[in-house]
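Chapter summary example.
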Amino acid sequence: MLPIAQVAHAGDGRLLATGGATQVEGSAGGGLVPWAVLAGYGTRDEFGGTAYYTQLQLPDYRLDSYGAAFTIDNRVEFSVARDRFDLGTLGKAIGMPGAALRQDILGVKWRLAGDLVYGDLPQISIGAQQKHDLDFTIPQLAGARHASGTDVYIAATRLVLGGAGGYDLLWNVTLRSSNANQFGLLGFGGDRGDRHWLAEGSLAMLFNPNWAVGLEYRQKPDNLSFAREDHAADGFLAWFPNKRLALVAAYVDLGSIAGLDRQRGWYLSLQGSL
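The structure predicted for these 274 residues follows.
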């Protein structure tokens, strides 16, 4: 679920894939993890942006995510996203076939320091994601305390040229403060706890100017006695044919969701960029 930068394919302005793809909460980065990079290809004194659609198919659920991001001067990113989580098997079990949980997400990210490729420091950004559940009845019954919550995070991202046997290597580390249950789709906080500091990471290798392969990992809170919440991970393949298009496919493991175990499945994300 991750995308990356390729120095050998710079062209005009920012390097190919330096805006990453879009994660399921609308921020630039990998599919699960926000990176320090900003959406689109705008450089200093320019605008940039992206629009995306993502679908994740799990054995008992389905997630659809779509939205857009807008970047000013390669310094600040604003994003908006909507996630729709089809309850599938669980919906039928509780007598609500076709039921879904929806949330809206407003994001902002500010590049503080450093550079993705050059200089002594990696690119470092801080960000926030304001989330609001549009369907709170089921999360409330499950023990969630709030229908809204705000995640805040700091991310560091670096592209190491020739760092993996001659291939370029990208790494990212993100530290997030969150009380979101299942990314916020099951509300915020619960009877077992509320806000936690959580670690996230990404590692990717560019084996060709347009292709990348890698892994990512994301810790999640476990606030509800109703059902445990596992951490998330994925392995991905990303294709960047040009600066206007990105396609990411991944195999995602979300563990147990609302009492249904082994929620593993395929993820596909399409992004257009400016």
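To summarize the output: The longest strand covers residues 148-164.
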